[in-house]
Amino acid sequence: MIKVGIVGGTGYTGSELLRLLALHPQAELKAITSRGEVGQPVADMFPALRKRVNIAFSEPTFESLKDCDVVFFATPHGVAMAQSAELVNAGIRVIDLGADFRLKNTTEFEKWYGMPHSEPELLGQACYGLVESAREEIKKAKLVGLAGCYPTAVQLALKPLISHATPLIDESSIVADCKSGVSGAGRKAAVGSLFSEASESFKAYGVSGHRHLPEIEQGLELISGRKAQITFTPHLVPMVRGILATTYVKLNEHGLNTDIQSLYEQHYANEYFVDVMPKGSLPDTKSVRGSNFVRIALHRPQGRDTLVIVSVIDNLVKGAAGQAVQAMNAMFDLPEHTGLEQLPLSP
Ligand SMILES: NC(=O)C1=CN([C@@H]2O[C@H](COP(=O)(O)OP(=O)(O)OC[C@H]3O[C@@H](n4cnc5c(N)ncnc54)[C@H](OP(=O)(O)O)[C@@H]3O)[C@@H](O)[C@H]2O)C=CC1
Ligand SMILES: CC(=O)N[C@@H](CCC(=O)OP(=O)(O)O)C(=O)O
């Protein structure tokens, strides 16, 4: 059994990890931390976990986590950075769901996250955790900086095109128009997440710059070795879970002469969690809700040279906790879908 610890067990991604790991056949929950709820049984806070999770919250300290094989950080930026070195040095593998180990350039990190990076050496050892593109590195990694939620939806939408040795699109003018449910903002109290603010409304945010922009560009460059430029606009939608990304690219001559639907189907043929839908499909967030799947559909409106790629994920699963468990499975040589076979909730 893999002994698992979670730092940040009271938040949305932490509790989603609990939901998934409670039924994982190879995982044993050893520690779940909270600063404010030490001693409280986890199932008292999350009745959905009654009779499945029988431990209590503990302090987010090394002492609580030292018997684990792997520790997930489901915490705000800056927390994993402060605590990972001690764990990694003790031979405990770390998967950070936050952004401390995603951006390789510390100046970029400081610019977008407003804090200096205190562990540049550890950052150098970290593997960027988009499992479909970095599986082999993740297997060996001691530390994974898991891909963000929007970056997962957008990179998986573009990967087959970007992976192609000869560019198929104009890689300098990609547009990703993305919509997220409110759980993307976390469980902490915030005015923008109030029912009366977010419901019956729909708005763009971070239009002039969002911290996922440099991450997406870095991720695309990691895949292709070429620099890509993207206009990324996130929106807040009045629903709880889900991300829908509509990504627009201009096909070049080579792209226009390629069967893009077949390219996607072949590229993802062996990916358990990626569903390339039949031509013309319209995936909705409900079709992935509660599951680790991503569904992708391709369109060429009016047969023109713009390709529209629609991708959907559950931000808390494939965008966070599910992808984290997928990475853990890869690290511990388990089939990647172990404990992750939940079908989406319907309706
Ligand atoms: N929500 C989403 O869709 C996604 C979130 N993420 C990332 O995952 C991380 C967690 O997000 P989310 O679950 O939404 O956040 P929440 O705000 O819901 O939860 C944050 C958790 O972190 C704990 N925490 C806060 N500060 C500290 C600290 N200084 N030391 C230890 N624990 C701390 C809190 O627990 P307590 O106060 O009880 O100690 C709480 O359990 C973030 O980095 C986020 O960016 C990534 C992808 C998607
Ligand atoms: C709706 C909403 O607010 N979404 C968050 C993104 C989710 C998140 O926490 O981002 P990471 O993937 O970087 O961890 C935001 O835009 O800041």
From TrEMBL:
<comment type="pathway">
    <text>Amino-acid biosynthesis; L-arginine biosynthesis; N(2)-acetyl-L-ornithine from L-glutamate: step 3/4.</text>
</comment>
<dbReference type="GO" id="GO:0006526">
    <property type="term" value="P:L-arginine biosynthetic process"/>
</dbReference>
<keyword id="KW-0560">Oxidoreductase</keyword>
<feature type="domain" description="Semialdehyde dehydrogenase NAD-binding">
    <location>
        <begin position="3"/>
        <end position="141"/>
    </location>
</feature>
<dbReference type="GO" id="GO:0005737">
    <property type="term" value="C:cytoplasm"/>
</dbReference>
<feature type="active site">
    <location>
        <position position="149"/>
    </location>
</feature>
<dbReference type="InterPro" id="IPR050085">
    <property type="entry name" value="AGPR"/>
</dbReference>
<comment type="function">
    <text>Catalyzes the NADPH-dependent reduction of N-acetyl-5-glutamyl phosphate to yield N-acetyl-L-glutamate 5-semialdehyde.</text>
</comment>
<dbReference type="GO" id="GO:0051287">
    <property type="term" value="F:NAD binding"/>
</dbReference>
<dbReference type="Pfam" id="PF01118">
    <property type="entry name" value="Semialdhyde_dh"/>
</dbReference>
<dbReference type="InterPro" id="IPR058924">
    <property type="entry name" value="AGPR_dimerisation_dom"/>
</dbReference>
<dbReference type="InterPro" id="IPR023013">
    <property type="entry name" value="AGPR_AS"/>
</dbReference>
<dbReference type="Pfam" id="PF22698">
    <property type="entry name" value="Semialdhyde_dhC_1"/>
</dbReference>
<comment type="similarity">
    <text>Belongs to the NAGSA dehydrogenase family. Type 1 subfamily.</text>
</comment>
<keyword id="KW-0521">NADP</keyword>
<dbReference type="InterPro" id="IPR000534">
    <property type="entry name" value="Semialdehyde_DH_NAD-bd"/>
</dbReference>
<dbReference type="GO" id="GO:0070401">
    <property type="term" value="F:NADP+ binding"/>
</dbReference>
<protein>
    <recommendedName>
        <fullName>N-acetyl-gamma-glutamyl-phosphate reductase</fullName>
        <ecNumber>1.2.1.38</ecNumber>
    </recommendedName>
</protein>
<keyword id="KW-0055">Arginine biosynthesis</keyword>
<dbReference type="InterPro" id="IPR036291">
    <property type="entry name" value="NAD(P)-bd_dom_sf"/>
</dbReference>
<keyword id="KW-0028">Amino-acid biosynthesis</keyword>
<dbReference type="GO" id="GO:0003942">
    <property type="term" value="F:N-acetyl-gamma-glutamyl-phosphate reductase activity"/>
</dbReference>
<keyword id="KW-0963">Cytoplasm</keyword>
<dbReference type="InterPro" id="IPR000706">
    <property type="entry name" value="AGPR_type-1"/>
</dbReference>
